[in-house]
């Protein structure tokens, strides 16, 4: 390797809540000048804490960080110029694009060529628009050029690509590469394994420690294999028969298309969130809705399970019209919402009891159902723990348990795996695929392109419209690409070339 | 310097683009002024008085006429006591007066004659007013009757209200509304400005960009101070030009002390904001710490002198109390230097203490 590392992290430790919550646990990492490093891990793995320690925003409990040979001190001027882009991009939503840029330039005492920078980010036409009204991809680019002001020697990007479409994601990576020209050291955190595979160095973090540091291509030639290796390194996962599916009692139904969407339209004022959406999902099929934030997939999803009223059109669950007879239709579905909609200050047992009641199970039937869930998911050791204090994997299992407790023939899952570590995701998908084999129809939304591979069929959403649909293989064939992410990018580009 | 200017500019842009801050600064004072001028009336209340006359003597006819013929009371007559108390319980009348059968007889015999007044104790101020009206009218009637009979001299009190010749409650209350307005601007507006930076994740970006605590604090004080002073000019202009409220004091003194009061209120708001990073919590705290004491404990509505000792002392620690005392005398009697200097020194000291706390509590790192 080279001489001395540019960044030398030595056994750094940081805990929160008085030592209860160990965010970074004796982590050591050496990074060399000019490298682009992907910091990979689930929510709560310690990525953000590590970046904040590097930026001098947090005081470590122990250990030290040397940047360019000098030790950093929290709250002091860092030894090198640092560009830092926090999660949510750190923009003022009520200031315009240009005002944001000018403001950060003044803070950093930088005279910049604003016009050139805005051109570079493709934001010149929008410079007088307020930052709050930009799309996710544009916000991300504005956040990046604000962080790039003053040509920092170290660029720290905290999950810049969450909820952004694959085209914008690629453009961002290209912008970073162009503007840093190999001079700047970049640390980019992400929860996406497929994204991490493209970096010079991947540092995989799990529970506050690194489980792998090195060239991603050394580990596996493609992102799929990379994920397998990471799972191995994080303790391994073995495929077992899904206990959930085994105990699942599939209700009798002869419905060929348990989920149907018929010309669904949703307008918010003059804004059209969903334009004429049609779907027909076969019994036992796993159907994925993919797309960036704001593309209309969540709105479609909510209309189909009766949580939002369509402007026109309707959906049917097990043949029952959701607009006309919402409660009868909803009785057939299990719903798992984004970000675990459990009661954080109720215990596991109380959450299960509550959801049993909410699904109309009473008395003996409720007791049986709750008992079955406790056994299947292994909740016995943590029955009396509050849901908020559970590890992420258990939270997710509890959400799934609450959704399938009443043996619904249809499952609606809204981004069930965002922020979850790879092993928990594996286990989750094992349950879902096994349930589908038993005849449960599954509709799922996700950001993860690699997860889409588990789906039988997929709809790609972009700007309120389905721009492509079919099996993963069909989609790749249609766009002549080799991965779903490329297929999606190609579909978006094709869409943009058409006149609106 | 350039950084601070940029920060102040950014803060101004945010104020201008946020309709709620303009609403708090200019519409809310107007609403409060209207409420204080037309809505709140501490001088008199309209009372419907029920009367059951068991005496029926010719003398009592005068008294009953007098009870009904004034601007404050209307009378209703009852034959049955039960019906009268029934209506009292339902709020149809606010007082029930019974003239006993032996009333005129006792009076003629030179003995004590009693009237029974029953009032609805649920409405505390109305009870006081009802009692006051009935007593005054009865006494007036009595002395008129006596004079006819004996022409003996009686003591008559002629009240003269200093600083407020017409005894108009508005002249005392409306200037005090400035205290509520300025507290709202000072605390409600600023209570959210730091927590908002935390919630939107911009605090991280500011700290990472190397913004110093002093620059941050100046950047937060200056714009809201300017908005507060503008709002003050606006409120005073409406009071004096539109509502024709007389002003006896000095404009210069009024603005200097108001500026000091605003300085202290901003400090309190910024303390709340730097301690509580949750916007919801911060605005609740602002209401409880700022708005309620300004309204209830500053002497605007309830006189401090009649509070229990603990609360009286507590009230003296609160900036609005001092400001209310000052602003009343400034409007009504002209500058009283003793009050003005004490209030001014206190507000300045308190404001500086608050500013020091804000400086101390301003985050230099995320885990501060």
Can you offer a commentary on this structure?
Chain A starts with 6 loop residues before the first strand and ends with a helix. In chain A, strands 6-7-8-3-9-10 form a six-stranded mixed beta sheet, sandwiched between helices. A six-stranded mixed beta sheet of chain A has the order 16-17-18-13-19-20, with helices on both faces. By secondary structure, chain A is α/β, with parallel strands linked by helices. Chain A has helices at about 45-55, 95-105, 115-120, 135-150, 165-180, 195, 215-220, 225-235, 245, 295-305, 325-330, 350-360, 365-375, 390-405, 420-435, 470-480, 485-495, and strands at about 5-15, 20-30, 35-40, 60-65, 70, 80-85, 155, 185-190, 200-205, 210-215, 260-270, 270-280, 285-290, 310-315, 320, 335, 410-415, 440-445, 455-460, 465-470. Chain A contains 17 helices and 20 strands. Chain B has about 375 residues and is mainly alpha-helical. In chain B, helix 3 (about 60-70) links the parallel strand 1 (about 45-55) and strand 2. In chain B, helix 10 (about 215-240) crosses helix 11. Chain B starts with a helix and ends in a 7-residue tail after the last helix. The chains are: A alpha/beta (about 500), B mainly alpha (about 375). The interface of A and B includes residues 88 and 103 of A.
């Amino acid at each position: 390797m080279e001489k001395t590392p540019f960044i030398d992290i030595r056994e750094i430790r940081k805990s929160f809540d008085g030592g209860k919550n160990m965010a970074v646990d004796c982590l050591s990492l050496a990074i060399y000048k000019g490298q682009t490093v992907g910091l990979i891990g689930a929510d709560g793995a310690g990525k953000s804490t590590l970046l904040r320690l590097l930026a001098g925003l947090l005081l470590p409990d122990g250990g030290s960080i040397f940047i360019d040979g000098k030790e950093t001190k929290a709250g002091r001027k860092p030894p090198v110029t640092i560009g830092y882009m926090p999660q949510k991009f750190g923009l003022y939503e009520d200031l315009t694009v240009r005002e944001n840029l000018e403001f950060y330039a003044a803070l950093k005492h930088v005279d910049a060529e604003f016009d050139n920078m805005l051109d570079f980010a493709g934001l010149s036409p929008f410079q007088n628009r307020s930052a709050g009204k930009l799309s996710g991809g544009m916000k991300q680019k504005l956040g990046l050029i604000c962080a790039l002001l003053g040509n920092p020697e170290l660029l720290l990007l905290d999950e810049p690509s969450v909820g952004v479409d694959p085209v914008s994601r690629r453009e961002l990576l290209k912008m970073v590469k162009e503007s840093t020209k190999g001079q700047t050291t970049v640390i980019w955190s992400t929860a996406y394994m497929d994204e991490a595979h493209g970096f010079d160095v991947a540092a995989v973090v799990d529970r506050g420690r690194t489980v792998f540091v090195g060239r991603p291509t050394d580990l596996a030639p493609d992102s799929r294999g990379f994920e397998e290796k990471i799972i191995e390194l994080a303790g391994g996962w073995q495929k077992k028969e899904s206990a959930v599916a085994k105990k699942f009692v599939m209700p009798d139904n002869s419905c060929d298309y348990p989920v149907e969407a018929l010309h669904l339209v949703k307008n918010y004022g003059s804004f059209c969130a969903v334009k004429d959406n049609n779907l027909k999902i076969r019994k036992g099929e796993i159907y994925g809705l993919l797309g960036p934030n704001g593309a209309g997939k969540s709105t479609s999803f909510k209309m189909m399970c009766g949580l939002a009223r369509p402007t026109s059109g309707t959906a049917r669950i097990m043949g029952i019209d959701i607009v006309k007879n919402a409660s009868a239709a909803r009785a057939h579905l299990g719903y798992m919402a984004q970000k675990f909609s459990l009661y954080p200050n109720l215990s596991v047992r109380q959450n299960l009891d509550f959801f049993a009641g909410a699904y109309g199970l009473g008395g003996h039937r409720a007791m049986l159902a709750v008992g079955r869930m406790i056994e299947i998911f292994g909740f016995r050791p943590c029955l009396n723990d509050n849901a908020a204090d559970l590890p992420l994997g258990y939270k997710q299992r509890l959400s799934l348990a609450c959704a399938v407790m009443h043996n619904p023939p249809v499952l609606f899952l809204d981004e069930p795996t965002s922020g979850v570590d790879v092993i928990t995701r594996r286990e989750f998908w094992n349950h879902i695929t096994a349930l589908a084999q038993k005849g449960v129809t599954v509709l799922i939304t996700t950001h993860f392109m690699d997860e889409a591979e588990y789906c039988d069929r997929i709809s790609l959403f972009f700007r309120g419209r389905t721009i492509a649909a079919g099996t993963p293989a069909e989609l790749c064939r249609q766009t002549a690409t080799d991965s779903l992410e490329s297929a999606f990018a190609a579909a978006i580009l094709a869409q943009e070339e058409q006149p609106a | 310097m350039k950084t601070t200017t940029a920060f102040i500019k950014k803060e101004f842009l945010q104020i201008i683009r946020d309709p709620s801050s303009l609403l708090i600064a200019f519409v809310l004072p107007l609403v409060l002024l209207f409420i204080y001028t037309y809505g709140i009336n501490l001088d008199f209340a309209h009372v419907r008085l029920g009367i059951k006359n068991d005496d029926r003597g010719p003398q009592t006819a005068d008294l009953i006429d007098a009870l009904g013929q004034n601007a404050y009371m209307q009378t209703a007559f009852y034959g049955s006591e039960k019906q009268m108390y029934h209506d009292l319980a339902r709020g149809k009348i606010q007082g029930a007066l019974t003239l006993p059968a032996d009333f005129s007889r006792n009076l003629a015999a030179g003995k004590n004659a009693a009237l029974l007044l029953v009032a609805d104790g649920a409405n505390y101020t109305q009870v006081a007013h009802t009692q006051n009206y009935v007593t005054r009218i009865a006494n007036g009637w009595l002395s008129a009757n006596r004079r006819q009979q004996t022409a003996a001299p009686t003591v008559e009190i002629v009240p003269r209200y200093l600083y407020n010749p017409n005894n108009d409650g508005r002249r005392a209350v409306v200037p005090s509304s400035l205290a509520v307005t300025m507290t709202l601007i000072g605390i409600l507006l600023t209570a959210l400005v730091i927590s908002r930076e935390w919630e939107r994740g911009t605090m991280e970006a500011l700290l990472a960009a190397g913004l110093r605590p002093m620059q941050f604090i100046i950047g937060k004080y200056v714009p809201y101070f300017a908005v507060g002073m503008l709002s003050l000019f606006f409120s005073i202009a409406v009071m004096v030009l539109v509502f024709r409220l007389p002003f006896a004091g000095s404009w210069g003194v009024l603005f200097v002390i108001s500026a000091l009061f605003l300085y202290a209120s901003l400090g309190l708001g910024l303390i709340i904001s730097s301690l509580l990073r949750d916007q919801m919590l911060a605005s609740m705290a602002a209401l409880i710490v700022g708005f309620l004491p300004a309204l209830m404990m500053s002497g605007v509505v309830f006189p401090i002198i009649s509070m229990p000792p603990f609360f009286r002392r507590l009230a003296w620690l609160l900036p609005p109390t001092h400001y209310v005392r000052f602003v009343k005398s400034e409007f009504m009697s002209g500058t009283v230097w003793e009050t003005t200097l004490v209030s001014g020194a206190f507000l300045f000291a308190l404001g500086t203490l608050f500013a020091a706390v804000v400086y101390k509590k301003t985050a230099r790192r995320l885990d501060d």
